[in-house]
User: Fold this.
Amino acid sequence: MKVVCGLGNPGPEYAATRHNVGWWLLDHLQQVWGFERFRRDGAALISDGRLDDVAVRLIKPTTYMNRSGAALRPLLGDPQFNPATDLLVVVDDTALAVGRMRFRPNGSPGGHNGLKSVEATLRSREYARLRIGIGEKPPGSDLADYVLAPFDEHDRVQIMELLPVAAEGVEVWIQNGTESAMQRYNR
Assistant:
């Protein structure tokens, strides 16, 4: 089974925020792939389905960003699950311009609290991630305020236009791995 985990915060007050682009992509994937509706399962909302011959689970942690890793804890008991090959974490990135995305096979959390939590749970940095650019915070502004604010209309449109491309990239990751997704979709 391949697992795509989109980081975000639960609740309507966070739904439109920059920090929730991981959830935006998972909602898009669930819809275009025709997966079952998201249902509560422990510390997450999950949706299961198949993409061609591969079982796929979509996970949206409901623990708030700083404790996102808790949603992955149940997978650690599965001897068939290998985070290095079977997990893709979708996350917002202030170091990338809006409308850009990057697949990475591993790496540091880069100051992102959601990735720090995932790393602490997995006890490893060896898992793929898809970073979706939300743009750099304005000088003098607070990072938390920036990521917890909604996009302006121009940036929101750019993100919405990126979702189908990101979905194609996730399909490539599922079928062919991180390197193929990087070569075709990093921009």
